[in-house]
Amino acid sequence: MSSLDTSLDRLVPPTRVRAWFEFGGRHAWTLLGVGLLVGAVVPFVVGDGFYLSVAGEMLMFAVLALSWDIVGGQTGYPSFGQMAFFGIGGYVTAIMFRDFGVFWPGLVLAGVLSLVAAAVIGAVVLRLRGGYFAIATLGILLTLTEITRNISITNGVDGISFLSTLPATTFYYVFLGLLGVEAGLLYYLSQTRFGYTLNAIRDDEAKVNAMGVNTTYYKVTAWMLAALFTGMAGGAWSLFNFFIDPLTAYNTAWNVELIAMALLGGTGTIVGPILGGMGLHAIIRLFVETYFTGWQLGLLGLIIIVTIIVVPSGVVGWLEERASAMDYYEHGGGAAGEESGGETGGEPE
Amino acid sequence: MSPQLSTDGVTKRFGGVTAVDDVDIEVEQGEIVGLIGPNGAGKSTLFNCITGALTPNSGTVRLDGEELSELPEHAVAQQGLIRMFQHTRVYGEMTVRENALVSTAEDAGLAGSLTPPGDSTRERASELLEYVGLGGLTDVKAGRLSFGQQKLLEFAMALMREPDVLLMDEPAGGINPAKLNQLIEYIRDVNSERSVTVLLIEHNMEFVMEVADRIYVLAHGETIAEGSPTEIQNNERVLDAYLGRE
């Protein structure tokens, strides 16, 4: 334990980690811009083949993990039904493209319908907590799967397939744009009382209530925001993939994958789910699927177990903790208590 | 003058147990009122009925003459009645400053929360944190503070909300006895300087006798006595209740 700590201290000293975070905090918008610029250049480097689709999927999973984290990480309501909005969005664009031959209006409609669905579903399920919430959201996902299998506009279990849609590059840029807008929006909100309130709900919802805040509004708004981006990502995905059917649209395994991505990267942060989503998907597509075909779900389970045991707050969360580990003492924790008069006498730990 | 806060025949039952039984309490504006009683007397339950965390089976709660009993908890708080908890409750994973900022009463609605906190809110937060002696710890996560510091943070958060009435559930519990005088000063200061009416539950007799203008005594869910600290100290029924002679 102590030898591990010592070597970690040498490898990632708290002061250096804190310098990273301070740099990131000061230049967040610049970093986002640079990230988008690098992302925009990728298609010119990797061309229009396998690697472009992997890169597109990486961005898509970053959007999905980041969306899951708005409610699951920031607000403390881990949803197992995030993919419901992915499916809704996916079917909206697929039907619009099949019946009217248009994509962009379909993408907008995918976002709008996901928002509406989220408002209705959220107002009901967000009154539940913990295990009940998880089961209820999973129930919604399964219900939508069944409904979609049994109605004609979605072509039932056979799904909808296309021989050609739009160039893959278009979808790549849609995913990049979604990620850029979402990351920017969440970063902005993280500095507002809306963002603070979500975190406060995560830490102690009853207290937030007692302080005069109707938490339902905040939770439903966060849930709708997550649904908007998830729905639009799904909307781009169905045509990017040339095919959509109930089992892939409302993919329960993917829902677990998003949770793993957010957990691994660091829930409650913005960089965490993005890195987790891109990183884990890259590992699965480029490594696991090639060398350990069929083992991705087993590996995913292993990653979740190891993450929860070793770095429960995720990689970014763990770094954040290191950065602030010394704060209490450096700011003279004891001294403040001395002057204040409310000190219990004992220091924490 | 009608009282600022009053309960009229408030009764709360849990199954066969009547936790609060027909309790009438009146708190005038600007008062510091103590609520004492043996364990299980129904003090915290009464608090929960006043704040809307529980709905009383019968009776009404009024704030400035307006009935509160039908309002949900958050709406009661919006009326200017803020409570602090017996077991200190702060947002552990957020910094001390964020804890204060999120508690502001300014731009209270959802729409108003979509812009970063303004300069006046920030100044007020810094000022209040400084006031309770946490000025040096603003960037520390609240969960890392000691119990006493968390209590002070909760106090500052309540003041951020600019309450008219502050309900404190055992403010002296777990506080270093040597620091109690300071706490009394805070409460008096808030009461006189910020004109906050205070209703507090307390087990520490010395403390409550010192700080309260008037005291209600609850036992078995009923009010058994009411009066000034001196009157309460000499009341036979109160002594009986505390010594278990009743």
Short description:
With 349 residues, chain A is mainly alpha-helical. Chain A is 77% helix and 1% strand. Chain A has helices at residues 2-11, 14-26, 28-46, 50-74, 83-100, 104-125, 130-149, 168-189, 193-210, 215-240, 246-249, 252-265, 271-291, 296-310, 314-324, 327-330, 333-340; strands spanning 160-161, 243-244.
Helix and strand element order of chain A: HHHHHHHEHHHEHHHHHHH
Question: What is the CATH superfamily classification of the largest domain in chain B?
Answer: P-loop containing nucleotide triphosphate hydrolases
Q: Give the beta-strand count of chain A.
A: 2
Order of helices and strands of chain B: EEEHEEHEHHHEHEHEEHH
**CA-atom Rg of chain A in angstroms:** 22 Å
List the helices and strands and how they pair.
The complex is a heterodimer of chains A (349) and B (246).
Chain A: H1 2-11, H2 14-26, H3 28-46, H4 50-74, H5 83-100, H6 104-125, H7 130-149, E1 160-161, H8 168-189, H9 193-210, H10 215-240, E2 243-244, H11 246-249, H12 252-265, H13 271-291, H14 296-310, H15 314-324, H16 327-330, H17 333-340
Antiparallel strand pairs in A: 1-2
Helix pairs in contact in A: 2-15, 3-8, 4-8, 4-10, 4-12, 4-13, 5-6, 5-10, 6-10, 8-10, 9-10, 12-13, 12-14, 12-15
Chain B: E1 5-14, E2 17-27, E3 32-36, H1 43-51, E4 58-63, E5 66-67, H2 73-78, E6 81-84, H3 96-102, H4 119-131, H5 147-160, E7 165-169, H6 180-193, E8 197-201, H7 205-211, E9 214-219, E10 222-227, H8 229-233, H9 236-243
Parallel strand pairs in B: 3-8, 3-9, 6-7, 7-8
Antiparallel strand pairs in B: 1-2, 1-4, 4-5, 9-10
Please explain how this structure is put together.
A two-stranded antiparallel sheet of chain A has the order 1-2. Chain A has 349 residues and is mainly α. Chain A has one domain (2-325): ABC transporter involved in vitamin B12 uptake, BtuC. Chain A has 17 helices and two strands. Chain B is of the alpha/beta class. Chain B has two domains: 1-80 and 163-246, P-loop containing nucleotide triphosphate hydrolases (Rossmann fold, 3-Layer(aba) Sandwich); 89-162, no CATH class. Helix content of chain B is 34%, strand content 24%. Chain B has helices spanning 43-51, 73-78, 96-102, 119-131, 147-160, 180-193, 205-211, 229-233, 236-243; strands at 5-14, 17-27, 32-36, 58-63, 66-67, 81-84, 165-169, 197-201, 214-219, 222-227. In chain B, the strands form two sheets. In chain B, strands 6-7-8-3-9-10 form a six-stranded mixed beta sheet, with helices on both faces. The mean pLDDT of chain B is 91. The interface between A and B is large, with 44 and 62 residues.
